[in-house]
Amino acid sequence: MLLDWGYVAIFVIVGAGMVSLPFAIIALLSPRSSFPHKLDTYESGVEPVGQAWSQFNVRYYMFSLIFVVFDVEIIYLYPWAVVARSLGASAFYSILVFLAILVLGLAYAWRKGALEWS
Amino acid sequence: MPWYVEVLRAVAGTIIIFSGVAIVAAMFGVLLERKVSGWIQSRIGPTHVGPRGLLQTVADTIKLLQKEHIVPRNADALIFASAVVLVPLAALLDYVVLPFGTTRWGPLIFRDLNIGVLYFAATSSLIVVGILMAGWGSNNKYALLGGLRSAAQMVSYEIPIGLVLITIALLAGSLSTVTIVTMQAHLWFIVTQPISFLIFLAAATAEVNRAPFDLVEAESELVAGYFSEYTGMRFALFQLGEYAEMFAMAALAVTLFLGGWRGPVLPSVVWFLIKLYALVFVFMWVRWTFPRFRVDQLLNFSWKVLIPLALLNLVGTAYVVMVVQR
After folding, report:
1. Contact residues, chain A, for B162 at CB < 8 Å
2. Which of A34, A105, B39, B239 has the fewest CB atoms within 10 Å, i.e. the most exposed one?
3. Interface membership of A21 toward B (CB under 8 Å)
4. Is pLDDT at B316 greater than 80 in this prediction?
C-alpha cells in the first residue's frame, strides 16, 4: 500500500522535473528583448482597459456549488460498488434510498432553475 | 527487492511513460489530427517536413523551443508559471493506472493501484485547477472567460464520468484497472453496457475540451481561451497536456469497455494501440464533423440528459448484479 503511493510520489517528482526540462532549454536558446508594449496584456490589439480581475457571471459559482454536492455524494458510491455483488438484495434497496436523496437534490436544483443558463 | 531497485524501477517507468506519451500522444497525435482534418476537409495536410510530413511536429517543437517566453506585466507571475507545469503533469498522472499490455511477468502498468479507477477520476479532474490558474493568472479577459467556462464545463461532465466508472466497478467488483480488464476475458463490457460507453464517450469529449464542446477555446470569440497569453514552449506544454488527456481518456475507454490489451494473435501492446488509435480517430472524426454547442446547451446536456441517464443505468445495473444474478 505504502509502496504503491511511493511509486506515485516518485512519478510526481520525476514527472515535474521532466515537464520543467523544456524551460532549461528555453533559458539557453531563447532570445531576450524587451520594450514596454511587449509586456502588455493582449486585448485584440488595443490598449487593455482595466484589469481582468473583476466581476464575472454568478452562474459559474452556481454550477460549481451543485458540482461539489454531487461529487461528494458520488464518492460514497465507490466503496459500495466494490462490495455490492456480495451484499445482495437488501443492500440494493438501501442504496436506492441513498440514490433517491441524490435524485431529489438534482430535481430540486432543476426546479429552482439552478441548471438554467440565463 | 531492495529499496533502491524499487526507486530505480519507478524512475525508469516514469521516464518511459513521459517519453512514450510525448511521442505517441503529442508528436504523433497532433500530426494525426492534422492529417485526419485534412482528409475530412478534402485537403492533404502537412506534407513537406520529412517523408509524407511525418516530422512536422518535431520541426514545430524545435521552432517553439527557440521562442522567447513572455510574462505579461500585469499577470500573477507565480500562478502564471505554475499552471503550465500542473496541466501536463496532471494529464500524465492518469497514466499511472492505465495497463498497456501484458507480459510473462504480469500486466504492463506503472502501478496497479487497488483504487485505480477512483485515482484516474481524481487526477483527471486536477487539470481543471491548472486551467483555472492559467485563466486567472494571465489577467487577460479572454483567458479568464476561457478558464471559467472550462471549470463549469469540466466539473459538469465529471459527474456522468464518475457514475459510469461506478457502474463498471460494480460489474467488475473492483476498482483496479487490471482486474477490470481481466473480468472482460469472455465478454467486453461494451456489450453489456452500451449506454455507459456512449455516456463515457460524450462526457470524455467534453472533459478534454474538444469540439463540439470546445467553448473553452472558441477561436472566434476567445482567441485561444485560457492559454492566450502563453508563448513558445509553454503553449506547447498546454498542447501536450491536452493531447495526453485525450489519449488517457481513450485509453481508459479501451480499458473499461473494449477489453483493454486483450486480442488474438498479435502482441497485447499492439492490440492496445490499435484500439486506442481507433477511439482517438473517433474523437477526431467527431471534432471535424459537428459544430460547437452553445454554453446553455452544453450544460443542459450534462445535467438534464447525461446525469439522469447515467443514474438510471447505474440503478438498472445494480438491480441486475445484486438482485437478479444472486
Report:
1. 71, 74
2. A34
3. no
4. yes
